[in-house]
Amino acid sequence: MVKKEHLIILFGGRSVEHEISIKSAINVVTHLDKDRFKVSTIGIAKSGDWFLVDDINQPIVSGVPIVLSLSVKKPSFRSLGSEIDTPIEIVFPILHGTDGEDGSIQGLFQALNVVVIGSNVLGSAISMDKIIAKKLLEHAGIPVVPYLCFSKQDKLSFQDISITLGLPFIVKAGNLGSSVGISKVSSEETFHAALQDSFQYGNEILIESFVKCRELECGILGNEQLASTWPGEITLIKNYDFYTYEAKYLDKEAIRIDIPAKVAVPVQLTIRELCEKVFKVLKCNDFARVDVFLTDDNKIMINEINSIPGFTDVSMFPGLWAHMGLTYPELITKVINLGIERWQKEQQYATDYEKH
Fold first, then answer.
1. Is pTM, for the whole model, over 0.90?
2. Which of 38, 129, 345, 347 has the most CB atoms less than 10 A away?
3. DSSP assignment string, 147-182
4. Distances from the Cα of 82 to the Cα of 66, 67, 211, angstroms
5. Do 164 and 80 share a structural domain?
6. What CA–CA distance (Å, rounded) separates 115 from 133?
7. CATH of the domain at 67
């Protein structure tokens, strides 16, 4: 009998996107190749405590508390006061937002030299920081939405911002996803409320022009050689100001998803090529989803990249790849294989310097 590979799914986390992570993890575990992988599910509670959990459908408030054994030769999760010793071979973080998608978790396990699926420390950190990502994309000549960035210490003038970006404009937290910490501003009154909302999640915010456009998403797989999907489109069909958290995850009648998007093929090809370039510029690995704006005159602008795209029932990423012919289990296996292959290549690099 072939020994199964031990795969650890990390989910939950201290992020405001905790619940989305759980929904994604449930789908990933459901569609994993159980003949190939032995799966352990590690839930990170909102408190930051880590548990070995049996039922990922339940809130992460209990389970077997675990600690990390920091041995590069044989890293493992252990439980104090019990004989549980869970070896760490492959880690698949299904974590969204702070501490999970920003390079923190990736760095922890990279230091232990275990396989971590998805973007490494650098790619994760860059992708999570919307401001840094914007600046890098601009430097690479990739079109982005006009923007300004500020910290809490800056003096913000509604009049100056509205002159520069026009009205309405969008205020975003600098380091979140899932439309958390985002507001549409059309007056000075809503401006101050938006600042208060976004600044509660961090020290920096991003303010962008509001672009009347179509919202498209493109899936990326690969490392040295990339593959991309035909873009899909999200259309709001209910009266929301923009694609909010509620519209994404709570209101099942808020949106319509079209895969592929009803866009001219030459434009779709340009979008795919541009999204692959974004993936490379932002130093991503294995898989990601790139979000794109398309105006009525076919002007393309990059909105953002998600280095750990959602795997929920309403997430676009799995659907995009299904249209390309990859079933859900095949997609999960492909993503994991990419991470393993990349790790194997990295083992060839020298870590010692000997004088000759």
1. yes
2. 129
3. EEEEETTSPP-HHHHHHHH-SSEEEEETT--TTTTE
4. 10, 12, 56
5. no
6. 25
7. 3.40.50.20
Question: 15: domain range?
Answer: 5-116
pLDDT at res. 356: 46
Q: What is the pLDDT of residues 129-170, one digit of tens each?
A: 999 999 999 999 999 999 999 999 999 999 999 999 999 999
Mind giving me the DSSP string for 196-219?
HHHHTT-SEEEEEE----EEEEEE
**What is the pLDDT at residue 184?**
92
- pLDDT tens, position by position, 267-299: 999 999 999 999 999 999 999 999 999 999 999
What's the number of domains the chain is made of? 3
Q: How many helices (H) and strands (E) does the chain have?
A: 10, 19
* Three-state secondary-structure class, residue 242: coil
Is residue 134 included in any domain, yes or no?
no
Residue 184 to residue 96: CA distance in whole angstroms: 23
What is the DSSP pairing of strand 286-294 with strand 214-222?
antiparallel
Question: What span, in angstroms and rounded, lies between the C-alpha atoms of 127 and 136?
Answer: 10
- Claim to verify: residue 69 and residue 189 sit in the same structural domain: no
Q: Mark which of 209, 224, 244 sits at the end of a domain.
A: 209
* Amino acid making up residue 39: V
State the pLDDT at residue 234. Answer: 93
pLDDT, mean of each 10-residue run, the chain (356 residues) = 89 89 95 95 93 89 85 84 84 91 94 96 96 97 97 95 96 76 90 92 93 96 98 84 62 84 98 99 98 97 96 93 97 98 92 64
Residue whose entry in the numeric block shows the structure tokens 């493109």: 218
* Distance in angstroms (rounded) separating the CA atoms of residues 192 and 186: 11
**Measured between alpha carbons, how far is 124 from 104 in angstroms, rounded to an integer?**
9
Q: Strands of 202-315 (E only): list them.
A: 204-209, 214-222, 226-228, 232-236, 255-258, 286-294, 300-306
